[in-house]
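Hi R.,

Here's the chain you asked about this morning:
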Amino acid sequence: MGLLIKVWDLPTRLFHWLLVLLMSASVLSAWVWENMVWHANCGYALLALWLFRLVWGFIGGHWSRFGRLLSSARHVMRHVQRPADWTLPGHNPLGSWSVMAMLLFIGLQIFTGMLSDDDAGFSGPLTAFFSNQWVSKATLYHAQIGKWVLLCLVVVHLLAIIYHEWVKHQRLVRAMFNGMQTAPANTTPSQDKWTNRLWGLLTGVVCVVLVQAGLQWLQPAA
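And the predicted structure, written out as C-alpha cells:
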C-alpha cells in the first residue's frame, strides 16, 4: 500500500504557480492589452524565475532535481509500452520530457524576446550586441513561432493533467498545492524543512538581483 510523502518542496510549488501567473500575464500584456512595457517586465520576471529553476534543479528537493528528471526520462519507451508499471511519484517519463521541453522553450522565448525589435518603439536589451540579421531572426521566432510552440506545450500539459485527474484519479493539482503524493514504501521524500526553504528564498533573491543588475548594465548599450 502506498504512503503519502512530500514530493514537491515549497520553492518548487511557488515556482510552478508563479510561472503560471507570469506566463498568463505575459500573454495578456502582448495579445490583449498590447502593452510592451508590461510584456517586457513579465519577461524579465520570467528570466529570474527561469534562472531560479535551473539552480533549484541541482540543489532543490529530491523530486525537483534534474538528475531525477533525466533518470525518469530514460524509461520513456518502457513507460509508453507499460504505463501501469510506473508507480513512482513526481513526473513520469513522458512528464519529465515535457518539463525539460517547457524549460528549454521558455528560455528560448525569453532570450529571443530580449533580442527582439518590433519596429514600434520597443527594442530588447540585447539588440545592441547583435547584427540586424540576428535581431530579425529572433524577432520572427519570438513573435511568430516560439509563442505557438509554448502554447502547444501548455495545451499538452493541461490535457495530461486532465487525463491523470479524471481518468487515473491522481491528484496532481492538489499535490502542487500541498506537495504530497502517494508513493511506494521506502520512496525517498523531498526535504522541505525551513533550511531548504531558506535556501530557496536566497536563491530567488540572488536570481532577481542578477537579472536587475544585468538589465542595469545593459541599459547604456540598449
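The longest strand covers residues 3-6.

Let me know if you need anything else.
M.
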